[in-house]
Amino acid sequence: MSAVTEFLAPRSVEEAVAILGADGDAVPIGGATALSPMIREGLLVPSRLVWLGRVPEWGAIAAGSTGVRIAAGATLADIAASATIRRLLPALAAAAGVAANPRVRAVATIGGHLAHADPRQDLTPVLLSAGAVCVVAGPSGERRVPLDELLVGFYETSLLAGEVITAVEVPADTVFRQVYARFNPASEDDYPTIGIAVQLELEPDGTVAGARLAAGGCAGRATLLEHTAAAIRQLPATDIDLAAVETAAANEIPVIGDHRGTERYKRLVAGVWARRAVAAAIAGGGPLLGRYPVV
Amino acid sequence: MKIALTLNGEQASADVEGDSQVLDVLREQFGLTGTKEGCGVGVCGACSVLVDGNPVSSCLYLAGMADGAEVWTVEGLAAKDPDLIEAFVECEGMQCGICTPGQVVAAAALRRHNPDPTEEEIRTWMSGNLCRCTGYGTIVEAVKRYVGRD
Amino acid sequence: MTATRGAARLDARDKATGATRYVADLSLPGQLHVAVVRSPLPHAEIEAVDVSSALAAPGVVGVFTADDIGAPLFGRRVRDAPVLAVGKVRYVGEPVAAVVADTRRHAERAATLVDVAYRELPVVASAAEATAPEAPMVHDAPWDYPGAVVGPGDGPNLQSVVRRGDEDLTAEALRSAPVVVDALYTTPAGHQGYLEPQGCVARVGSDGLVEVWINNKSPYRLVGQLAASLGLEPDRIVVHPVPIGGDFGGKGSPMAAPLCVALSRLTGRPCRLVLRYSEDLTSTNPRHPTTMRVRLGADRDGHLLALRFDSLADGGAYAAFKPIASVNLHGVLEAGSPYRIPHRYIESRIAYTTTVPKGHARAPGAPQATFAVESAMDELAGRLGIDPVELRRRNVLGDGDPNPDGVVWIEARGREVLDAAVAALTPRPVPLGWQHGWGISLYDRATAPGQTSLRLLDDPDGGGVVAEVPIPETGTGNHTVVREGLARLLGLGRDRVRVVHVPTSDLPGDAGVGGSRVTASLSEAVERAAAAWAARTGSEPVVVSLGEAGGAERVTSFSAQIAQVAVDPETGQVRVLEIVSAVDVADIVNPAAHRMQIDGGAAMGFGFALLEDLKIEGGQVGAGNLGDFRMPTAHDLPALTTVLVTGGRGVGALNVKQIGELTNVPTAAAIANAVAAATGARIRSIPLTAEAVLSAMGAPE
C-alpha cells in the first residue's frame, strides 16, 4: 500500500494523459465527489490524484451547428444554469438541476459523472436519449466514443488505461422534445428507482421523425430502449399507442432488483413512466416529470 | 503539498497530504471546528463551506482543489454577515446544533444564487442539509427571514 | 408571553456561529487517536490477530486486543458486551482490536493492516431464527452475565421476556368476543439518526483519576457503568460536560468510554475515539426490529373486550444497551394504553441474534407497538363498520377510567385530542388520477419522574444567579427551561440567570435525558431551588437533590395524528400531504422549542413509516451510509399542522407536560391507515414502500 498520495493539477490534457499513461495507479478526478468517500474510508488509495480542474476552458459549454459541446469539467450546476443547455437540451438541464444536492452539483463534473458509471445517475439516460458522444483523450491520441459504447456495466466503462473524457458532444435542435422522468417514490433526494429519458423529433405534420428512449436506475448501466423507440418512429404522434409503449418498455428494459425495488416492480414502473414520458413529450409540456411540489 | 488560499477573507496556507479533504484541514490545522463532520459522504451537509461562492461538502472536497480558492466557513460568514446569524437566533432555527453551521452556510449560498427565493425554492435548496431535530420549520423560517421573505 | 420568537434559547448564538464545542471539537494536550478494527463477519471465532504490520505503521503507539485490557464487559443493566471481542465476534462491526496513534488518519490507516483470522460460526440472522428450536446459541450461558434477567428455562437466545396481565382471562375474553382482529405487524431496525457520531475522549491521570468527555446523555449513570465495567471507584471517575449533537435515545450507552479509558490507562495519555458515521450506522445501538401479533376483540358496538399482544424483537448480539430493569421495551409493555380494555395480556420477548446490538430509540418500543395496535384498531373498525374515529372515541380513556394497567390519571384528554385533530383536517388537492385518503392514530404517554439535582449560587460576574445543572443539553432546550423557570420564579431578567452544565463530581446525581421527563424533573428542581433561594438568609449556595423529581401526580398526555395521503394507483407511490398533530399540553415554557419537538417528532415518525430501514440481511447492515439510510429532508416532509389542546394539568409550579415523544409514535399507523383508506390496501409492515402498496393494491384484503 502506498503511504502517500500525490495531488497533481496539470494545466493541459496532454500533461494529464502523460501522467496517467505512465502510472497505472494514478486516478483522474473531475470534482472527486464520488471517489472522495472511498478515499476517506481508505477503500481507494491512489498513487496520484490527477485533477483536471486547472485545464483551460475545462468547463466550457458551447452551441455549434448540430448540437452542444460540453467540456468534461462543466459541473452539474453549470449545466443546470446554462442558458444554452436550457434552450437546446432542457431535459439535461432539468436532470442536472435535481441530481444529488446543491453542494455535489457545484463540484461534480459531467466527465466524472460519466466515467464513474454509476447506473443510478440522472444525466446518463438523458444523454443516451440525445445520442451523446464522448470525446476521449488518451496515450494514443483522441477518439470519439458514443456514450452507448462508453458504458459497459456497473461502475465500468470502455475507457482504456490513461484515458480521460475531455468533452461530451450532444446533438441538439430546438425541434426535439425532451422529457426526463425521475421516479423516486420514497424521497425526492434519493437516487431514482427508475429514470426514463425520451427525445422525440416531430415533423411539422406531427409525424414522429425520430424517437429515442433510455432508462437509468434499472440494471448495471443506463440503457437505450431501442425496440420501444422503434415502435413509435414514423407514426403520427396522435396515433401512438401509449399502452403499447408501456408494454414495450416494460418488456425491453434490463432490470436488476435492488433496495429500491424488485425486478418485477422496476419493470412495471419503467413501463408506466415510459408511457407518461412519451405522452408528456407529445404534449410538449415541461422537461421534468416525477417531482411533486412542496406541500 | 503546500496550498495557499483565502480563508474567511484572509490569506492562509497549509501543508496538506495529497488526499486530504478540506474538512480535516479546516478543523485540524486551522482549528475551525465550526465546520462539523456528519455523514462523511456528502449527504448531510453538516460540513458545508463556501468555495469560490459555491456551497461544497468539505468532507468531499480535496484540499488540493482548494489551492488558490476563496473559502468561507461558518465562522467567517458569521463575522461578515451578522444578519445571517440573527435570523437563525431569532427564529430559533436549531436544536442540538450539530447541523446548524451547515444550515447557516447553505442559507448564505442560497442568497448568493437566488436572492429572492420562494418557499418552495428554499425548501428544495435546503433539502441538501439534513436536520433530525426540528422538522425544518424554524430553519425554513430563519432562511426566509434572512432573505427578507417573512 | 410575547411571541414564539423571543431569542429565548440560550445556546442559539453559539450553535449558529459554530462556536459550540462538541466532543469531536475537543483536543486534549498529548491526546492520542483511536481507530477500531471491526469484525467483517456476523458470527465467528477469532483464531489469531496479527498486529505486526499495524504496529510498524507510521505514528502507531500501540495495537490492543481484549488480552491487553483484561477482557472487561460493559452494559447499562445486563453487563454482556465485551469492550473488545473476547474469543468470538457476534456481529458485523464488533470491535476486535484498537489501534492507537498520533493522528486519526494514522490510526485509521493502521487499522486496515491488522490481520484477523476467523473461523465462521452459524449466523443467527433474526429473532425468529434465534427462538426456533435447536437454534445455535449466540451466547453459551446468557443467564450468567451480571444483571441477566433470563434463565435457562426461558428458551434459547433470550435477552428478556416479560409477561404482563392475565393470559387465561384474556384468552377467554377473546374466545367469546363477537369480533376479533388477529394480525401480524413488523417494523425494521432503524438508526436514531442523530447527525453527530458517537465519540469519547478519556484521560487517566497518574493519580488514577479517570476523566471522560463524551456525548453521553446520562453522565451519572455512565460513572456507575464505567466503575462496574473496569473495576474502578466511582468517586475517581469524572464525566465532564459536553453538549450533545442529537440523541433520540441513542446517546445513553457507554459506547466508546470503556475502551478509551482502558486505552488511556495502557498508554498513559488521553485517548480519543470519534466514530465515522458509517461505523455509527452499522455498529452502535439502533431501534429493535419487531414482529408483533395483535389479537384485539370487541363487541358489536365496538367496545373493546380484550387485547393480546405478542412481541418478538431482535435485540442483536448484546443486551447491554437497554437500561430498564426488565431489559425490555416499555413501549411494547404499554400497548393499548390509551384505551379501556378489560383484559389485556402482553408477552414481550427480546432475542439475541448475531446482528448489531439494539438499544433505545425515541420512545423505545412505542412506535412499533402503536403501529401495530392503531393499525389493528382501524382493521377492527372496518370489520365492525364503525368509523375509525368513533371507534376510538368509544374506547379512549375518560377522566376516572383505569387504563389497562389499572392506572387512573388525574385527567384523560384523549377524546379532546381526537376531536381537535379531526376539526383541523381540511382536504388538500390531489394530483390527477391519484387516490386520496386519511387515517388517524392515537397515543398516550405518562410523565415519569426521575432523579435530578441543581445548585444555585451568586453569579460573581454581575449580581445574577448561576444555576449548575447535571444534565447535558441534547438539543431539546433543557438548559433554556432552567433559565426560563428561574427567571420567572425569582423575578429576574433572563440575562441574569446563567446556566452551567457541570462535571459529575459537582452535583449529587441525575437520571439523564430520557423518558420525556427532563422538563418535568428540572422544573420541579427549579421550583424547589427557587423557593430555597428566596428563603435563604446568607449568600450560601442552594443545592437541591431529588430522587424522584417531576412525577408525583399521575399525569399522562395524549396525542392524535391524522395523516392525509395521495396514492398513485399505477405505481403505489404515497405522497403524504399533511400530518395533523393534536397534542395535550399544559403550560409551555419555550414555545419554539416545544414546537420543534412536535415537528421533529412528526418528521421522525414520517421517516419511520416511509423511509428508514437499516436493511439488516444475513447479519449485515445493508444501509451503510446516510445516502442509503434515508432520512426525511425539508423537501420530503408534508405540511406539519399542530393543534395545541391547551388547558391540561401538568407537573409542578411551571405546570408542564412532556412533549418529546408524543408525535413520533402514532405517525406510522396514521399513514398506514390513510393508505388503507385511500386504496383498500392494508400494509402491516413498514417502511411502507411504493412497491408494497402497489402489491397490496393488487391483492386486496
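The CA atoms of residues 110 and 138 of chain B lie 17 Å apart.
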